[in-house]
Protein backbone atom coordinates (compact mmCIF):
# COMPACT_ATOMS: atom_id res chain seq x y z
CA UNK A 1 0.00 0.00 0.00
CA UNK A 2 0.98 3.60 -0.54
CA UNK A 3 0.83 5.96 2.41
CA UNK A 4 -0.97 8.55 0.27
CA UNK A 5 -3.81 6.09 -0.30
CA UNK A 6 -4.27 4.88 3.31
CA UNK A 7 -5.88 6.68 6.25
CA UNK A 8 -2.92 7.03 8.64
CA UNK A 9 -3.52 10.28 10.59
CA UNK A 10 -0.32 10.36 12.67
CA UNK A 11 0.07 12.86 15.51
CA UNK A 12 3.26 14.69 16.43
CA UNK A 13 2.36 15.28 20.08
CA UNK A 14 1.23 12.89 22.79
CA UNK A 15 -2.57 12.98 23.29
CA UNK A 16 -3.52 14.33 26.71
CA UNK A 17 -6.13 11.58 27.26
CA UNK A 18 -3.62 8.72 26.93
CA UNK A 19 -2.52 7.13 30.22
CA UNK A 20 -0.44 4.16 29.06
CA UNK A 21 2.09 3.55 26.30
CA UNK A 22 -0.15 1.46 24.04
CA UNK A 23 -2.98 4.00 24.17
CA UNK A 24 -0.63 6.89 23.44
CA UNK A 25 1.18 5.20 20.55
CA UNK A 26 -1.96 3.77 18.92
CA UNK A 27 -3.50 7.23 18.89
CA UNK A 28 -0.30 8.87 17.63
CA UNK A 29 0.18 6.25 14.88
CA UNK A 30 -3.38 6.70 13.64
CA UNK A 31 -4.43 3.14 14.53
CA UNK A 32 -7.49 4.01 16.64
CA UNK A 33 -9.74 6.98 17.34
CA UNK A 34 -12.03 7.47 20.32
CA UNK A 35 -15.80 7.53 19.76
CA UNK A 36 -16.88 7.54 23.43
CA UNK A 37 -15.35 6.52 26.75
CA UNK A 38 -13.89 3.05 26.27
CA UNK A 39 -15.20 2.77 22.68
CA UNK A 40 -12.91 3.12 19.64
CA UNK A 41 -12.92 3.04 15.86
CA UNK A 42 -10.13 0.89 14.40
CA UNK A 43 -8.43 2.60 11.47
CA UNK A 44 -6.67 0.63 8.68
CA UNK A 45 -3.35 0.03 10.50
CA UNK A 46 -5.06 -1.02 13.72
CA UNK A 47 -7.49 -3.27 11.90
CA UNK A 48 -4.67 -5.03 10.04
CA UNK A 49 -3.05 -5.95 13.36
CA UNK A 50 -6.36 -7.25 14.75
CA UNK A 51 -7.02 -9.34 11.65
CA UNK A 52 -3.60 -10.97 11.89
CA UNK A 53 -4.17 -11.86 15.54
CA UNK A 54 -7.61 -13.20 14.62
CA UNK A 55 -6.18 -15.32 11.83
CA UNK A 56 -3.51 -16.82 14.11
CA UNK A 57 -6.28 -17.64 16.59
CA UNK A 58 -8.45 -19.20 13.88
CA UNK A 59 -5.64 -21.35 12.56
CA UNK A 60 -4.77 -22.70 16.00
CA UNK A 61 -8.36 -23.14 17.19
CA UNK A 62 -9.21 -25.06 14.01
CA UNK A 63 -6.05 -27.12 14.45
CA UNK A 64 -7.23 -28.00 17.98
CA UNK A 65 -10.57 -29.25 16.66
CA UNK A 66 -12.81 -26.30 17.55
CA UNK A 67 -15.60 -25.16 15.22
CA UNK A 68 -16.19 -21.49 14.45
CA UNK A 69 -19.69 -20.11 14.94
CA UNK A 70 -21.07 -16.61 15.49
CA UNK A 71 -23.53 -15.81 18.27
CA UNK A 72 -25.57 -12.60 18.59
CA UNK A 73 -24.31 -9.59 20.51
CA UNK A 74 -27.72 -9.22 22.19
CA UNK A 75 -29.09 -12.04 24.33
CA UNK A 76 -32.45 -12.32 26.12
CA UNK A 77 -32.66 -11.81 29.86
CA UNK A 78 -34.44 -15.15 30.29
CA UNK A 79 -31.21 -17.06 29.63
CA UNK A 80 -29.24 -14.98 32.14
CA UNK A 81 -31.98 -15.37 34.77
CA UNK A 82 -31.70 -19.15 34.47
CA UNK A 83 -28.12 -19.00 35.72
CA UNK A 84 -28.73 -16.17 38.19
CA UNK A 85 -26.26 -13.88 36.46
CA UNK A 86 -28.84 -11.29 35.39
CA UNK A 87 -28.81 -9.97 38.97
CA UNK A 88 -25.35 -11.17 40.02
CA UNK A 89 -23.34 -9.60 37.17
CA UNK A 90 -24.12 -6.07 38.31
CA UNK A 91 -23.91 -2.82 36.38
CA UNK A 92 -21.19 -4.05 34.03
CA UNK A 93 -23.99 -5.91 32.21
CA UNK A 94 -25.45 -3.35 29.81
CA UNK A 95 -29.19 -3.99 29.71
CA UNK A 96 -31.79 -2.73 27.25
CA UNK A 97 -35.37 -3.37 26.14
CA UNK A 98 -36.86 -3.87 22.71
CA UNK A 99 -40.06 -2.22 21.49
CA UNK A 100 -42.11 -4.91 23.25
CA UNK A 101 -40.39 -4.08 26.56
CA UNK A 102 -38.60 -7.41 26.67
CA UNK A 103 -35.27 -7.37 28.51
CA UNK A 104 -31.99 -8.00 26.69
CA UNK A 105 -28.30 -7.46 27.42
CA UNK A 106 -25.17 -6.85 25.39
CA UNK A 107 -23.13 -10.01 25.91
CA UNK A 108 -19.94 -9.58 27.92
CA UNK A 109 -19.53 -13.35 27.54
CA UNK A 110 -21.70 -16.12 26.06
CA UNK A 111 -21.97 -19.09 28.45
CA UNK A 112 -25.76 -18.82 28.59
CA UNK A 113 -26.24 -18.56 24.82
CA UNK A 114 -23.93 -21.47 23.97
CA UNK A 115 -25.43 -23.67 26.71
CA UNK A 116 -28.89 -22.98 25.32
CA UNK A 117 -27.66 -23.97 21.86
CA UNK A 118 -26.20 -27.19 23.24
CA UNK A 119 -29.36 -28.27 25.07
CA UNK A 120 -31.42 -27.69 21.94
CA UNK A 121 -29.13 -29.37 19.40
CA UNK A 122 -27.08 -32.07 21.17
CA UNK A 123 -28.85 -35.19 22.37
CA UNK A 124 -26.35 -38.05 22.51
CA UNK A 125 -22.89 -38.79 23.85
CA UNK A 126 -22.00 -39.72 20.25
CA UNK A 127 -22.04 -35.98 19.44
CA UNK A 128 -19.38 -35.25 22.07
CA UNK A 129 -16.89 -33.77 22.58
CA UNK A 130 -18.04 -30.46 21.11
CA UNK A 131 -16.02 -27.24 21.10
CA UNK A 132 -17.32 -24.07 19.43
CA UNK A 133 -15.67 -20.68 19.25
CA UNK A 134 -16.38 -17.22 17.91
CA UNK A 135 -14.50 -13.96 17.39
CA UNK A 136 -16.91 -11.19 18.20
CA UNK A 137 -17.46 -7.77 19.74
CA UNK A 138 -18.22 -7.80 23.48
CA UNK A 139 -19.48 -5.08 25.77
CA UNK A 140 -18.87 -4.58 29.49
CA UNK A 141 -20.03 -1.32 31.01
CA UNK A 142 -16.86 -0.61 32.98
CA UNK A 143 -17.37 1.98 35.72
CA UNK A 144 -14.11 3.66 34.69
CA UNK A 145 -12.87 2.64 31.26
CA UNK A 146 -9.21 3.55 30.88
CA UNK A 147 -5.91 2.72 29.23
CA UNK A 148 -7.30 2.64 25.69
CA UNK A 149 -7.78 -0.93 24.46
CA UNK A 150 -6.46 -2.34 27.74
CA UNK A 151 -9.71 -1.71 29.62
CA UNK A 152 -12.39 -0.57 27.23
CA UNK A 153 -16.14 -1.03 27.32
CA UNK A 154 -16.39 -2.43 23.80
CA UNK A 155 -13.71 -4.90 22.76
CA UNK A 156 -13.02 -7.80 20.41
CA UNK A 157 -12.76 -11.23 21.98
CA UNK A 158 -12.36 -14.84 21.00
CA UNK A 159 -14.50 -17.03 23.25
CA UNK A 160 -14.77 -20.81 23.01
CA UNK A 161 -16.89 -23.34 24.89
CA UNK A 162 -16.35 -27.08 25.21
CA UNK A 163 -18.86 -29.78 26.19
CA UNK A 164 -17.77 -33.24 27.32
CA UNK A 165 -19.33 -36.41 28.67
CA UNK A 166 -17.24 -36.67 31.85
CA UNK A 167 -14.52 -34.97 33.90
CA UNK A 168 -11.70 -36.95 32.32
CA UNK A 169 -12.59 -35.99 28.76
CA UNK A 170 -13.27 -32.39 29.86
CA UNK A 171 -9.69 -32.19 31.14
CA UNK A 172 -8.48 -33.44 27.76
CA UNK A 173 -10.40 -30.60 26.06
CA UNK A 174 -9.00 -28.13 28.59
CA UNK A 175 -5.45 -29.29 27.89
CA UNK A 176 -5.98 -28.95 24.14
CA UNK A 177 -7.07 -25.36 24.60
CA UNK A 178 -4.19 -24.66 26.99
CA UNK A 179 -1.71 -25.91 24.40
CA UNK A 180 -3.50 -24.01 21.60
CA UNK A 181 -3.16 -20.82 23.64
CA UNK A 182 0.55 -21.43 24.10
CA UNK A 183 0.90 -21.75 20.32
CA UNK A 184 -1.25 -18.65 19.68
CA UNK A 185 0.72 -16.32 21.92
CA UNK A 186 4.03 -17.77 20.77
CA UNK A 187 3.03 -17.15 17.17
CA UNK A 188 2.00 -13.59 18.08
CA UNK A 189 5.62 -13.02 19.10
CA UNK A 190 4.83 -12.35 22.76
CA UNK A 191 6.84 -13.06 25.90
CA UNK A 192 4.18 -14.61 28.14
CA UNK A 193 3.54 -16.98 31.04
CA UNK A 194 0.53 -19.17 31.83
CA UNK A 195 -0.36 -18.79 35.52
CA UNK A 196 -2.85 -20.39 37.87
CA UNK A 197 -5.79 -18.04 38.40
CA UNK A 198 -9.05 -17.52 40.25
CA UNK A 199 -12.28 -18.30 38.40
CA UNK A 200 -14.07 -15.08 39.34
CA UNK A 201 -17.56 -14.42 37.94
CA UNK A 202 -17.24 -17.20 35.36
CA UNK A 203 -17.07 -19.89 38.04
CA UNK A 204 -15.75 -23.42 37.72
CA UNK A 205 -13.09 -25.61 39.28
CA UNK A 206 -9.79 -24.71 37.55
CA UNK A 207 -8.40 -21.89 35.45
CA UNK A 208 -5.21 -20.42 34.02
CA UNK A 209 -4.47 -16.91 32.82
CA UNK A 210 -2.02 -16.17 30.03
CA UNK A 211 0.01 -13.14 31.00
CA UNK A 212 2.13 -10.98 28.71
CA UNK A 213 5.11 -9.85 30.76
CA UNK A 214 5.44 -6.06 30.76
CA UNK A 215 6.57 -3.49 33.32
CA UNK A 216 3.38 -1.53 32.70
CA UNK A 217 1.16 -4.52 33.52
CA UNK A 218 -1.69 -4.00 35.99
CA UNK A 219 -1.37 -7.43 37.57
CA UNK A 220 1.37 -9.08 39.60
CA UNK A 221 2.36 -12.68 38.99
CA UNK A 222 4.60 -14.89 41.10
CA UNK A 223 6.64 -17.72 39.65
CA UNK A 224 9.57 -20.06 40.12
CA UNK A 225 12.62 -18.99 38.14
CA UNK A 226 13.69 -22.58 37.51
CA UNK A 227 10.44 -24.52 38.00
CA UNK A 228 7.00 -24.56 36.40
CA UNK A 229 4.82 -23.06 39.13
CA UNK A 230 3.30 -19.65 38.32
CA UNK A 231 0.17 -17.94 39.61
CA UNK A 232 -1.33 -14.50 39.77
CA UNK A 233 -1.02 -12.82 43.13
CA UNK A 234 -4.70 -13.41 43.91
CA UNK A 235 -4.40 -17.14 43.37
CA UNK A 236 -0.84 -17.91 44.53
CA UNK A 237 -0.77 -20.36 47.41
CA UNK A 238 1.07 -19.54 50.63
CA UNK A 239 2.40 -22.46 52.65
CA UNK A 240 1.94 -22.55 56.44
CA UNK A 241 5.09 -21.65 58.40
CA UNK A 242 7.48 -24.58 58.73
CA UNK A 243 7.61 -24.39 62.53
CA UNK A 244 5.85 -22.45 65.32
CA UNK A 245 7.50 -19.87 67.56
CA UNK A 246 9.43 -21.32 70.51
CA UNK A 247 8.80 -18.27 72.74
CA UNK A 248 7.25 -18.84 76.15
CA UNK A 249 3.86 -17.12 76.59
CA UNK A 250 4.05 -13.81 78.45
CA UNK A 251 1.26 -12.18 80.44
CA UNK A 252 -1.29 -10.18 78.42
CA UNK A 253 -0.66 -6.46 78.87
CA UNK A 254 -2.80 -3.42 78.04
CA UNK A 255 -0.95 -0.52 76.41
CA UNK A 256 -2.17 3.05 75.86
CA UNK A 257 -1.52 3.93 72.19
CA UNK A 258 -2.91 7.45 71.63
CA UNK A 259 -4.04 8.03 68.03
CA UNK A 260 -1.96 5.04 66.86
CA UNK A 261 -4.34 3.59 64.26
CA UNK A 262 -2.08 2.20 61.55
CA UNK A 263 0.42 -0.65 61.61
CA UNK A 264 3.25 1.80 60.97
CA UNK A 265 2.10 4.12 63.79
CA UNK A 266 1.84 1.28 66.32
CA UNK A 267 5.17 -0.28 65.34
CA UNK A 268 7.03 3.01 65.59
CA UNK A 269 5.40 3.82 68.91
CA UNK A 270 6.19 0.40 70.43
CA UNK A 271 9.51 0.03 68.58
CA UNK A 272 8.67 -3.36 67.05
CA UNK A 273 8.54 -4.74 63.51
CA UNK A 274 5.21 -5.27 61.70
CA UNK A 275 5.80 -9.04 61.93
CA UNK A 276 5.05 -8.79 65.68
CA UNK A 277 1.62 -7.30 65.11
CA UNK A 278 -1.63 -9.01 64.06
CA UNK A 279 -4.20 -6.98 62.12
CA UNK A 280 -7.88 -7.68 62.78
CA UNK A 281 -9.77 -6.94 59.55
CA UNK A 282 -13.55 -6.94 59.79
CA UNK A 283 -15.22 -8.14 56.60
CA UNK A 284 -18.86 -8.22 55.62
CA UNK A 285 -20.14 -10.99 53.35
CA UNK A 286 -22.72 -10.45 50.65
CA UNK A 287 -25.18 -12.23 52.96
CA UNK A 288 -24.52 -9.66 55.73
CA UNK A 289 -22.35 -11.75 58.10
CA UNK A 290 -19.49 -9.95 59.90
CA UNK A 291 -16.25 -11.94 60.11
CA UNK A 292 -12.93 -11.02 61.72
CA UNK A 293 -9.91 -11.98 59.62
CA UNK A 294 -6.50 -12.04 61.28
CA UNK A 295 -3.33 -11.46 59.25
CA UNK A 296 0.20 -10.59 60.28
CA UNK A 297 1.07 -6.91 60.31
CA UNK A 298 3.42 -7.16 57.32
CA UNK A 299 0.91 -9.18 55.23
CA UNK A 300 -2.20 -8.20 53.28
CA UNK A 301 -5.52 -10.02 53.33
CA UNK A 302 -6.64 -11.67 50.09
CA UNK A 303 -10.34 -10.98 49.44
CA UNK A 304 -10.70 -13.87 47.00
CA UNK A 305 -9.22 -16.44 49.40
CA UNK A 306 -11.38 -15.04 52.20
CA UNK A 307 -14.52 -15.25 50.02
CA UNK A 308 -13.68 -18.83 49.10
CA UNK A 309 -13.21 -19.85 52.75
CA UNK A 310 -16.49 -18.23 53.78
CA UNK A 311 -18.30 -19.74 50.76
CA UNK A 312 -19.68 -16.38 49.70
CA UNK A 313 -19.70 -14.58 46.34
CA UNK A 314 -17.84 -11.55 47.64
CA UNK A 315 -16.59 -9.82 50.78
CA UNK A 316 -15.98 -6.16 51.52
CA UNK A 317 -14.23 -4.45 54.39
CA UNK A 318 -16.79 -3.32 56.95
CA UNK A 319 -17.44 0.42 57.17
CA UNK A 320 -16.47 2.48 60.22
CA UNK A 321 -19.95 2.33 61.74
CA UNK A 322 -20.04 -1.47 61.51
CA UNK A 323 -16.54 -1.77 63.01
CA UNK A 324 -17.48 0.42 65.97
CA UNK A 325 -20.70 -1.52 66.55
CA UNK A 326 -18.87 -4.88 66.51
CA UNK A 327 -15.81 -3.88 68.57
CA UNK A 328 -16.90 -0.86 70.66
CA UNK A 329 -13.86 0.94 69.23
CA UNK A 330 -13.09 3.17 66.25
CA UNK A 331 -11.28 1.85 63.18
CA UNK A 332 -7.66 1.06 63.97
CA UNK A 333 -8.19 -0.53 67.37
CA UNK A 334 -10.11 -3.74 66.55
CA UNK A 335 -8.73 -6.94 68.05
CA UNK A 336 -9.76 -10.57 68.62
CA UNK A 337 -9.53 -10.65 72.46
CA UNK A 338 -13.01 -10.34 73.97
CA UNK A 339 -14.64 -9.98 70.54
CA UNK A 340 -18.20 -11.32 70.89
CA UNK A 341 -20.69 -12.53 68.30
CA UNK A 342 -18.17 -12.46 65.46
CA UNK A 343 -16.55 -15.45 63.77
CA UNK A 344 -12.74 -15.29 63.85
CA UNK A 345 -10.65 -16.80 61.07
CA UNK A 346 -6.88 -16.46 60.81
CA UNK A 347 -4.13 -16.81 58.27
CA UNK A 348 -1.78 -19.77 58.74
CA UNK A 349 1.01 -17.40 59.83
CA UNK A 350 -0.90 -16.54 63.02
CA UNK A 351 -0.77 -20.15 64.23
CA UNK A 352 3.04 -19.93 64.43
CA UNK A 353 3.10 -16.64 66.37
CA UNK A 354 3.50 -16.02 70.11
CA UNK A 355 3.27 -12.86 72.20
CA UNK A 356 1.96 -10.65 69.42
CA UNK A 357 0.27 -7.23 69.46
CA UNK A 358 -3.43 -6.78 68.70
CA UNK A 359 -6.01 -4.02 68.93
CA UNK A 360 -7.66 -3.69 72.35
CA UNK A 361 -11.26 -3.05 71.19
CA UNK A 362 -11.09 0.31 72.94
CA UNK A 363 -9.99 3.72 71.72
CA UNK A 364 -6.23 4.35 71.93
CA UNK A 365 -5.64 0.83 73.25
CA UNK A 366 -3.60 -2.17 72.11
CA UNK A 367 -2.81 -5.46 73.83
CA UNK A 368 0.72 -6.85 74.10
CA UNK A 369 1.70 -10.53 74.36
CA UNK A 370 -1.55 -11.91 72.95
CA UNK A 371 -1.63 -15.66 72.21
CA UNK A 372 -4.36 -17.23 70.13
CA UNK A 373 -4.48 -20.53 72.07
CA UNK A 374 -4.91 -18.70 75.38
CA UNK A 375 -6.60 -15.34 74.89
CA UNK A 376 -9.12 -15.95 72.10
CA UNK A 377 -10.46 -18.74 69.88
CA UNK A 378 -9.84 -19.03 66.16
CA UNK A 379 -12.65 -20.81 64.30
CA UNK A 380 -10.52 -21.66 61.25
CA UNK A 381 -6.90 -21.31 60.14
CA UNK A 382 -6.39 -21.06 56.36
CA UNK A 383 -4.33 -19.46 53.61
CA UNK A 384 -5.90 -15.99 53.69
CA UNK A 385 -3.13 -13.62 52.72
CA UNK A 386 -1.70 -12.19 49.53
CA UNK A 387 1.41 -14.03 48.41
CA UNK A 388 4.51 -11.91 47.79
CA UNK A 389 7.96 -12.16 46.28
CA UNK A 390 10.28 -14.25 48.45
CA UNK A 391 7.55 -16.58 49.73
CA UNK A 392 8.47 -20.24 49.22
CA UNK A 393 6.91 -21.90 46.19
CA UNK A 394 4.16 -24.36 47.14
CA UNK A 395 5.74 -26.80 44.68
CA UNK A 396 9.49 -26.61 45.22
CA UNK A 397 10.03 -24.35 48.26
CA UNK A 398 12.21 -22.10 46.06
CA UNK A 399 11.60 -18.37 46.63
CA UNK A 400 8.96 -16.93 44.31
CA UNK A 401 9.85 -14.09 41.94
CA UNK A 402 7.42 -11.27 41.11
CA UNK A 403 6.76 -9.76 37.71
CA UNK A 404 4.12 -7.49 36.18
CA UNK A 405 1.78 -8.94 33.59
CA UNK A 406 -1.13 -8.15 31.30
CA UNK A 407 -3.84 -10.78 31.04
CA UNK A 408 -4.57 -11.59 27.39
CA UNK A 409 -6.17 -15.03 27.71
CA UNK A 410 -8.02 -17.12 30.28
CA UNK A 411 -9.07 -20.78 30.23
CA UNK A 412 -11.63 -22.22 32.66
CA UNK A 413 -12.80 -25.72 33.52
CA UNK A 414 -16.40 -24.92 34.38
CA UNK A 415 -17.73 -28.33 35.39
CA UNK A 416 -21.56 -28.38 35.54
CA UNK A 417 -22.13 -24.80 36.78
CA UNK A 418 -24.04 -23.76 33.66
CA UNK A 419 -25.26 -27.10 32.36
CA UNK A 420 -26.94 -27.79 35.71
CA UNK A 421 -28.53 -24.34 35.94
CA UNK A 422 -29.88 -24.63 32.38
CA UNK A 423 -30.57 -28.39 32.33
CA UNK A 424 -28.13 -29.02 29.48
CA UNK A 425 -28.06 -32.82 29.34
CA UNK A 426 -27.36 -35.61 26.86
CA UNK A 427 -28.09 -39.34 26.82
CA UNK A 428 -25.03 -41.34 27.85
CA UNK A 429 -24.17 -44.83 26.58
CA UNK A 430 -26.58 -46.30 29.12
CA UNK A 431 -29.45 -44.11 27.92
CA UNK A 432 -29.33 -41.95 31.06
CA UNK A 433 -29.70 -38.15 31.11
CA UNK A 434 -26.28 -36.74 32.04
CA UNK A 435 -25.11 -33.17 32.60
CA UNK A 436 -22.44 -31.96 30.18
CA UNK A 437 -19.07 -30.98 31.64
CA UNK A 438 -18.13 -27.57 30.27
CA UNK A 439 -15.03 -25.48 29.72
CA UNK A 440 -14.70 -21.92 28.43
CA UNK A 441 -11.71 -20.19 26.89
CA UNK A 442 -11.25 -16.48 26.14
CA UNK A 443 -8.68 -14.32 24.36
CA UNK A 444 -8.85 -10.54 24.26
CA UNK A 445 -7.97 -9.85 20.63
CA UNK A 446 -7.81 -6.06 20.90
CA UNK A 447 -6.14 -6.37 24.32
CA UNK A 448 -3.48 -8.65 22.81
CA UNK A 449 -2.62 -5.94 20.29
CA UNK A 450 -2.26 -3.37 23.07
CA UNK A 451 -0.24 -5.76 25.24
CA UNK A 452 2.19 -6.34 22.38
CA UNK A 453 2.87 -2.60 22.30
CA UNK A 454 3.28 -2.42 26.08
CA UNK A 455 5.92 -5.14 25.74
CA UNK A 456 7.54 -3.85 22.53
CA UNK A 457 8.23 -0.13 22.19
CA UNK A 458 10.90 2.50 22.67
CA UNK A 459 10.99 6.28 22.93
CA UNK A 460 10.37 6.60 19.16
CA UNK A 461 7.33 4.35 18.85
CA UNK A 462 6.07 0.80 18.50
CA UNK A 463 8.20 -2.27 17.77
CA UNK A 464 5.86 -4.89 16.36
CA UNK A 465 6.61 -8.62 16.24
CA UNK A 466 6.86 -9.64 12.58
CA UNK A 467 3.85 -11.95 12.89
CA UNK A 468 1.28 -9.28 13.76
CA UNK A 469 2.87 -6.08 12.43
CA UNK A 470 0.55 -4.00 10.22
CA UNK A 471 3.20 -4.30 7.46
CA UNK A 472 6.41 -6.30 7.25
CA UNK A 473 8.37 -3.60 5.43
CA UNK A 474 8.23 0.20 5.45
CA UNK A 475 9.65 1.48 2.15
CA UNK A 476 11.27 4.91 2.57
CA UNK A 477 12.51 6.85 -0.49
CA UNK A 478 14.33 9.95 0.78
CA UNK A 479 14.40 12.03 -2.42
CA UNK A 480 12.24 12.50 -5.48
CA UNK A 481 15.00 11.80 -7.98
CA UNK A 482 14.12 9.57 -10.90
CA UNK A 483 16.69 6.96 -9.83
CA UNK A 484 15.26 6.74 -6.29
CA UNK A 485 11.64 6.66 -7.45
CA UNK A 486 12.24 3.98 -10.09
CA UNK A 487 14.16 1.78 -7.63
CA UNK A 488 11.44 2.23 -5.00
CA UNK A 489 8.70 1.36 -7.46
CA UNK A 490 10.57 -1.76 -8.58
CA UNK A 491 11.12 -2.90 -4.99
CA UNK A 492 7.48 -2.22 -4.11
CA UNK A 493 6.20 -4.45 -6.91
CA UNK A 494 8.73 -7.19 -6.22
CA UNK A 495 7.76 -7.24 -2.53
CA UNK A 496 4.07 -7.28 -3.34
CA UNK A 497 4.44 -10.07 -5.91
CA UNK A 498 6.36 -12.13 -3.32
CA UNK A 499 3.59 -11.74 -0.73
CA UNK A 500 5.60 -9.39 1.47
CA UNK A 501 3.37 -6.74 3.01
CA UNK A 502 4.86 -3.32 2.32
CA UNK A 503 3.90 0.26 3.10
CA UNK A 504 5.43 2.68 0.62
CA UNK A 505 5.79 6.20 2.01
CA UNK A 506 5.20 8.06 -1.24
CA UNK A 507 4.45 11.41 0.39
CA UNK A 508 6.28 14.56 -0.64
CA UNK A 509 7.77 14.97 2.83
CA UNK A 510 11.23 15.51 4.28
CA UNK A 511 13.25 12.39 5.09
CA UNK A 512 13.12 13.21 8.81
CA UNK A 513 9.31 13.20 8.81
CA UNK A 514 9.23 9.85 7.05
CA UNK A 515 11.78 8.30 9.42
CA UNK A 516 9.89 9.55 12.48
CA UNK A 517 6.59 8.13 11.22
CA UNK A 518 8.27 4.84 10.31
CA UNK A 519 9.68 4.49 13.83
CA UNK A 520 6.29 5.42 15.30
CA UNK A 521 4.38 2.85 13.22
CA UNK A 522 6.99 0.22 14.03
CA UNK A 523 7.12 -2.10 11.00
CA UNK A 524 9.89 -4.68 11.62
CA UNK A 525 12.02 -3.68 8.60
CA UNK A 526 12.68 -0.21 7.18
CA UNK A 527 14.09 -0.12 3.64
CA UNK A 528 15.67 3.26 2.88
CA UNK A 529 16.46 4.28 -0.72
CA UNK A 530 18.59 7.36 -1.29
CA UNK A 531 20.68 8.85 -4.08
CA UNK A 532 23.97 8.50 -2.24
CA UNK A 533 23.38 4.86 -1.42
CA UNK A 534 22.29 3.97 -4.93
CA UNK A 535 25.37 5.64 -6.39
CA UNK A 536 27.42 3.40 -4.11
CA UNK A 537 25.32 0.41 -5.17
CA UNK A 538 23.55 -0.12 -1.82
CA UNK A 539 20.20 0.14 -0.08
CA UNK A 540 19.84 0.34 3.72
CA UNK A 541 17.68 -2.12 5.64
CA UNK A 542 17.10 -1.25 9.27
CA UNK A 543 15.88 -3.81 11.80
CA UNK A 544 13.42 -1.81 13.91
CA UNK A 545 13.79 -3.98 17.02
CA UNK A 546 17.59 -3.95 17.26
CA UNK A 547 18.45 -0.82 15.29
CA UNK A 548 20.89 -2.85 13.18
CA UNK A 549 21.40 -1.41 9.69
CA UNK A 550 22.42 -3.66 6.78
CA UNK A 551 23.62 -2.26 3.46
CA UNK A 552 23.10 -4.54 0.50
CA UNK A 553 22.84 -4.38 -3.29
CA UNK A 554 19.38 -3.56 -4.70
CA UNK A 555 19.30 -6.89 -6.55
CA UNK A 556 19.62 -8.78 -3.24
CA UNK A 557 17.00 -6.90 -1.21
CA UNK A 558 14.11 -9.24 -2.07
CA UNK A 559 16.11 -12.37 -1.30
CA UNK A 560 17.27 -10.85 2.00
CA UNK A 561 13.71 -10.02 3.05
CA UNK A 562 12.48 -13.48 2.08
CA UNK A 563 15.22 -14.99 4.25
CA UNK A 564 14.25 -12.79 7.19
CA UNK A 565 10.53 -13.55 6.98
CA UNK A 566 11.06 -17.28 6.44
CA UNK A 567 12.00 -17.54 10.13
CA UNK A 568 8.42 -16.85 11.19
CA UNK A 569 5.13 -18.71 10.90
CA UNK A 570 3.06 -15.88 9.48
CA UNK A 571 -0.75 -15.92 9.52
CA UNK A 572 -2.65 -16.20 6.28
CA UNK A 573 -4.06 -12.84 5.20
UniProtKB/TrEMBL annotation:
Nucleotide-binding in keyword set: yes
Regions crossing the membrane: none
Matching NCBIfam families: PRK09194.1, proS_fam_II
Protein role: Catalyzes the attachment of proline to tRNA(Pro) in a two-step reaction: proline is first activated by ATP to form Pro-AMP and then transferred to the acceptor end of tRNA(Pro). As ProRS can inadvertently accommodate and process non-cognate amino acids such as alanine and cysteine, to avoid such errors it has two additional distinct editing activities against alanine. One activity is designated as 'pretransfer' editing and involves the tRNA(Pro)-independent hydrolysis of activated Ala-AMP.
Single annotated GO MF: proline-tRNA ligase activity
Aminoacyl-transfer RNA synthetases class-II family profile domain span: 33-465
Domain notes: Consists of three domains: the N-terminal catalytic domain, the editing domain and the C-terminal anticodon-binding domain.
Origin organism lineage: Bacteria, Pseudomonadati, Nitrospirota, Nitrospiria, Nitrospirales
Subcellular location: Cytoplasm
Self-association and partners: Homodimer.
UniProt cross-references to CDD domains, sorted A to Z: ProRS-INS (cd04334), ProRS_anticodon_short (cd00861), ProRS_core_prok (cd00779)
Enzyme Commission number: 6.1.1.15
Claim: Ligase is one of the keywords in the record: yes
Catalytic activity: tRNA(Pro) + L-proline + ATP = L-prolyl-tRNA(Pro) + AMP + diphosphate
Organism encoding this protein: Candidatus Nitronereus thalassa
The organism's place on the tree of life at top rank: Bacteria
Assigned protein family: Belongs to the class-II aminoacyl-tRNA synthetase family. ProS type 1 subfamily.
Keywords attached to this entry: Aminoacyl-tRNA synthetase, ATP-binding, Cytoplasm, Ligase, Nucleotide-binding, Protein biosynthesis
Record-given protein name: Proline--tRNA ligase
InterPro entries: aa-tRNA-synt_IIb (IPR002314), aa-tRNA-synth_II (IPR006195), aa-tRNA-synth_II/BPL/LPL (IPR045864), Anticodon-bd (IPR004154), Anticodon-bd_dom_sf (IPR036621), Pro-tRNA-ligase_IIa (IPR002316), Pro-tRNA-synth_IIa_bac-type (IPR004500), Pro-tRNA-Synthase_IIa_type1 (IPR023717)
Amino acid sequence: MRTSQVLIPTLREDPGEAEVVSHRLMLRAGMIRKVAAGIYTYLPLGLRVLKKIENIIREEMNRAGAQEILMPILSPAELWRETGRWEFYGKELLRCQDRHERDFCFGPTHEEVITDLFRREVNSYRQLPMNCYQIQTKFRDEIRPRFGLMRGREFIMKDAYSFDRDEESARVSYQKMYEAYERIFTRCGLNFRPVEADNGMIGGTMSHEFMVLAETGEETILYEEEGTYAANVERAEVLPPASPSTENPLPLETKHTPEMKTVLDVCQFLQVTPAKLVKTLLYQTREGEIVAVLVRGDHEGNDIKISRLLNTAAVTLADAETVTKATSAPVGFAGPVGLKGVKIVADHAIRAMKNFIVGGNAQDTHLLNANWDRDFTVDTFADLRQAQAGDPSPRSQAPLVAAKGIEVGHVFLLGTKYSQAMDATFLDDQGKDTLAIMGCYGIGVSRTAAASIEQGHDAKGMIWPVQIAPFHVHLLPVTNSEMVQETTKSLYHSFTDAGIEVLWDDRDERAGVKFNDADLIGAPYHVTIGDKGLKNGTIEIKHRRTGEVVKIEPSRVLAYMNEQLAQFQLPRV
